[in-house]
Structures are given as C-alpha cells and as structure tokens.
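Can you please make up a protein's amino acid sequence together with its fold in token form to help me picture the idea?
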Amino acid sequence: MHHSFHPPQRTLMGPGPSDVPPRVLAALAQPTIGHLDPCFIELMDAIKKQLQYVFQTDNPLTLPISAPGSAGMEACFVNLVSPGDTVIVCQNGVFGGRMKENVERCGATAVMVEDAWGKPVDVDKVAAAFSAHPQASLLAFVHAETSTGARSDAAALCALARENRALSIVDSVTGLAGIPVAVDAWGADAVYSGTQKCLSCVPGISPVTFSPRAVERILSRSHKVQSWFLDMQLVMAYWDGDSKRAYHHTAPVNAMYALHESLLMVEEEGLAAGHARHRRNHEALVAGLGAIGLEMAVAPEHRLPQLNAVCIPEGVDDASVRSTLLAEFDLEIGAGLGALAGKTWRIGLMGHSSRPRNVFTCLSALESILSRQGAISVAPGSAITAARSTYGADDQAH
C-alpha cells in the first residue's frame, strides 16, 4: 500500500528554496480554475503589475515563465541570441558558466570575462572585452551570484552594454526583493529571477522582464527561436493579448495563486523595508559567526545579505556538520559549489527565512555542533549574544 507523502517541517536556510509562509501555502490550496478562465486572466494582469513593482520597471513585457529560474535564463538567451552572434559572458561563479552554455547552444560565440569566485565582476575587464570585440551584441552577467554570495555592480555593467550598443541579460534569481533591483534605472534589457529565493514562494516559476529594446530585437529576428515553449512571440500572445488570449500552454494555475500572494506580501512590507530587513538579519548573522571565529568568504562591500558564504574552519567535516544540522535541528544550509566546494557553507536569509528567530536558531546550532566536534571553544551562547547586540529594540519583537 502506498501512503500520502508528508514532508518534515524544516527551517530552510540554504541557497533556496526559502521558507514559504503559511499565507502562500494556503493560496496554493484554493480551487483550481482554467488557465483561460476570465478570473485567471484577471489574476495574470494583477501578477504582471506586481512583477513590474518588484523589478522597478514599466516594461510591458514582464511576466512569470511557467518553469524555474533556469527556464527564465533560457528564455532570455533563446529570444535575444541568434546563431553567429558574439556575446560577452561574465563568470564569477556557477551561474555565469550556465550562461556560457546557453550562448553556445544558441549557435553564438561566448567571449568570457572571468573573475575569481567570491569576487564581483570586474567592470574594467568587461570594458576591455567590448574594445576587443566591438561586434558583441549582448552582455550577460549575474547580479547576485548564488554560488558565492557575491554581488556585482549591475548599474555600471548595464551602462557599459548600452555605451557599446549591446543589450544586457541579467541574472537576479537571488537578488530580486532581497537587494535593490532597479531594471529601468539600470537600463537593463532582460532580467530573470526565481520565485523560491527572496520572494519566498514555491519553486517552479521564473519572473522575467524585457525592455522595449529587447522586444524590438525579438520581433526583428530572422531566425526562429530554437525553443518553441520559451518563444516570447508566442508567450506574449498568451500573457499580453488583451481579452483575446491565444492559448499557448496550461499555466501552473495554483502556483500562480501562490506567486500573487507572495508578491502581495512584498508590497505590504514595501521593497525598501524588505531590503533593510535582509540587511539587519545579515549583520546579526555575521556578528554571531564572527563571535565563534568563523569568517566570511566575500569582502563586506560585495556581500549579498540574503546569501552568506562562510569559510569552513580547518579540519571541520563539511558534510557531517550539514547532515547533523538537518538531523538534529531540521535546519538546511547549503554546501559550497564548484571552486568553493568543501571550502564554504552557504547560509540563506531569503524572504520569509530572513528573520531573527532563524538567525538565532542557525547560530546556536552551529555553535553547539562545532563545539562538540572540538573545532571551536567558546563560552556557550557567544554567537547569539553577539547577534542580539546588533538588533534594535523593535527587531527583538519579531
């Protein structure tokens, strides 16, 4: 006999997904309606406006792709890259490598600008790449590199693309709603994100936005987009066709209820207040980790408050610490990837997961496991005491 699946109650403090609030889970459980139902069409329009708010854009082509962040990435590349194009791709972690893979699969040439893992993209190197490759029609970079916890200067990089008459593709999967993402102010042409990070929605949807310049390029393509499912000319007719929507695919209706609710929560808090909350909890976590001798892997000015890369102390068994956190504390943190595998842990403070309670839980759990393993010797409670001292009186209440 098969039984229903009952997942454990975890606290999610890895690189995503983040904790999904009860309100969002409740939204998922509402009755399913048809994806062409007039009520659902109204919801689509509401979600579009909400996404324009979180992306800080007036771009008419702003919508959620019915698939995870990786599909948002692919949607940007397959629509804007044609065979034979030259694309400058910045890599300072795992996700820049995925961009390169997309460019090559589109039949284009990727000119790589590489920076060390944990460092931001070097704007001067990108300028040099444009000088060396004046034919480049696109610049692709990761704003918030999930694999390292480093943040790059999106405004400067998008400006550089414009100066060189190139479009920009920006990965802000981990950035959106956690740090400022200002699509119109940056002059970014295509930006993609995911629902399972700072939006604290269920995984499986990718918000994207395309500038009018990007739409112009899509409409003037001479070569068909290689992906039928992600072809914006077709998807536009479903998301943008006024009352007469062309059927394209069956949208994940209940997941869209959840996205609407999570975006409503972002609006209720306000973007600036949300950014400040992520910052405060990050500062508390860093103070607590410092008190037990753990160092951060990224320089302070380039750290993502929502994704904290921590150096694993010498002689500590990375996997055993993470499996103990899961087994004893029901707490998930992330392992390092690529060049940082075995060298860092990635502690997420994203969306609903970014609250003092989680900071305290994570710090006391790490302190207890590392003390038991003999990796640190500190007075019990050192981490929490240090974290608590960074909060103001009103933070303590949350």
User: Anything to note?
Assistant: The domain at 271-396 is CATH 3.90.1150.10 (Aspartate Aminotransferase, domain 1). The mean pLDDT is 96. The two ends are 44 Å apart (CA to CA). The chain has two domains: 21-267, 271-396.
